[in-house]
Amino acid sequence: MGLTPDPFRLWWLAWLGLIPLWIVTQKVRPFPAFLLGGLWGFAYHGMALFWITGIHPMTWLGVSWWHSLAIAVVVWLIITLFGALLSGLWAMAMAGLTPKLAVSPRIVIACAVFCALEVVWSWTPLYWTALGYTQSPDNLLILQISKLSGQQAVTALIVAVNGLLAEAILVRKLKLQLRYFYLTLLMVGLAGVYGLVEMQSDRLVS
Q: S-S: 134 plus which of 4, 158, 191, 197, CB 3.0-4.6 Å?
C-alpha cells in the first residue's frame, strides 16, 4: 500500500493492498490483529509520509545538522504512528466483531469502521494519508465518487473491493469466489460509469 502515492504512484495496488490484513483479522484474536494492523499502517503511512523528512537539513534556519535530522525523524514518526494506530484499531475491530458474521455484514462493518476512523482522523491536523488519497491524482474516474459523500466514498469502495477479494480467497468455493468477483466488478463498474458521467458533465459545463 505504501507504493500507491508519490513518488511511485502505483495507485492500483490500493485495490489489493488490504487483502492480507483482512485475511489475518479473520484468523487471529483482537490484540495480535491490532499489532499487525499497526505494522500495516506503519508501512503505508510511513512510506506515504516519508517526504516530510525532506525538511532536513534546516541549517539555513540556524539548526544544527544533527538536530535538524532528529526533528525531521521525530515529526515523521509522530504522524506515521498516528496513522498506524488507526489501522491497528480497524484491524482489532475486525478481529473482534466480524469473524463469525456472514460476508455481507462483515464488509459493511469493515467499511463503516474504516470510514468512521477516518472521519475522526479528519478532525485533527494530521489528516494527510487517508485511503482515498492513494487514488490521487491518477485515478480520476474513481475519484469522482467523492462528490457523493466526500473522500470516504473512495475509502469505502477500496475497503469493500479488498474485502470481497479477500473473502474469495477465504471461502475456497468456486461458485462463491465467482460471485464475489462479479460483485467486485459490478461495484467498480458502477463507480466507473458514475465517474465517466461526471467527467463528461464537467467538460460540457466548462
A: 4
Question: Grid coordinates standing for 44?
Answer: 503505508
Ramachandran class of 62: left when φ > 0, alpha when ψ lies in -120 to 50, beta otherwise: left
Residues 6+ apart with CB under 8 A from 61: none
pTM of the model: 0.92
Distance from C-alpha of 5 to C-alpha of 48, rounded to nearest angstrom:
6
CA angle 43, 81, 116 (to 5 degrees): 95
CB 129 within 8 A of CB 5: yes
The span from the CA of 65 to the CA of 148, in Å, is 47
Q: Determine the Cα angle at 42 with ends 32 and 169, to 5°.
A: 60
Per-residue model confidence as pLDDT tens digits over 47-97: 998 888 888 888 778 888 888 889 889 999 999 999 999 999 999 999 999
Give the position of cell 468456486: 174
Query: What distance lies between CA 47 and its chain's CA centroid?
Result: 13
